[in-house]
Structure formats: C-alpha cells, structure tokens
UniProtKB/TrEMBL annotation:
This is Uncharacterized protein. Its main location: membrane. Coiled coil: none annotated. It is a multi-pass membrane protein. GO terms for cellular component: plasma membrane. It holds the Pfam family UPF0060. The lineage of its organism: Bacteria, Bacillati, Cyanobacteriota, Cyanophyceae, Coleofasciculales. The chain crosses the membrane at residues 7-28, 34-50, 62-78, 90-107. InterPro entries: EmrE-like, UPF0060. The keyword Acetylation does not apply. It is found in: Cell membrane. Keywords: Cell membrane, Membrane, Transmembrane, Transmembrane helix. Belongs to the UPF0060 family.
Length: 109
C-alpha cells in the first residue's frame, strides 16, 4: 500500500506542478487572463507541499520526482496540447520511470 500511496503523491505533485506551470505559461506566453497566472502560482505553491507527504528523504524524493516530471510532461503535452509523443519521447519516459523505481523503491540494507 505504501508503494501505491507514494505513486499517488508523485502523480498529484505532477498535476499541480505541470498544471501550475502551464497556467503561468498561458498567462505570460499566450496572453490569457492574469487569473490563470494567479491560479498557476497557487498550484505551484501546493505542489511544493505535496512531496512532503512522501516518506523518503528530500534528496531521494526530489531526484525521483525529476523523472516523474519528465514522464508526466510528455503525457501532459499529448493530452492537453495535442502533441503526440514519438518513439524517443516514449523511450526517454521509460528510462526515467526505471530511474524512479530504482531510486525510490529498490531494497536497501
């Protein structure tokens, strides 16, 4: 159950970080409402809180989250921006997912 909970926190953090950054992007780069920028800023603040629910240490969580961010960003671009990942996007995503599994969940003595 701890594994599922940890994965949930990675996905939730990704939604808040990527979503928050996306809203700021829309505001500044696409000329959308300042309210989207403010919502994005709030989401980024909440993103900063979510990783604290992980049970591992800061360095391990943030190193593993870097991989989750890569994979989730590819999915965000596909589902939200309509940019279909190519084989190298998929390969890179699987490589970083493997890294997440090693960093966070490998047995330690």
């Amino acid at each position: 159950m701890a594994f599922i909970t940890s994965l949930f926190y990675f996905i939730l953090a990704g939604i808040f970080e990527i979503g928050g950054g996306y809203f700021v992007w829309l505001w500044l780069k696409e000329g959308q409402s300042v309210w989207l920028g403010l919502l994005g800023g709030l989401m980024l603040f909440i993103y900063g809180i979510i990783p604290t629910f992980q049970t591992a240490n800061f360095g391990r969580v943030y190193a593993a989250y870097g991989g989750a961010f890569v994979a989730l960003s590819i999915l965000w671009g596909w589902q939200i921006d309509g940019v279909k990942p190519d084989r190298f996007d998929w390969l890179g995503s699987w490589i970083v997912i493997l890294g997440i599994l090693v960093i966070m969940y490998a047995p330690r003595s």
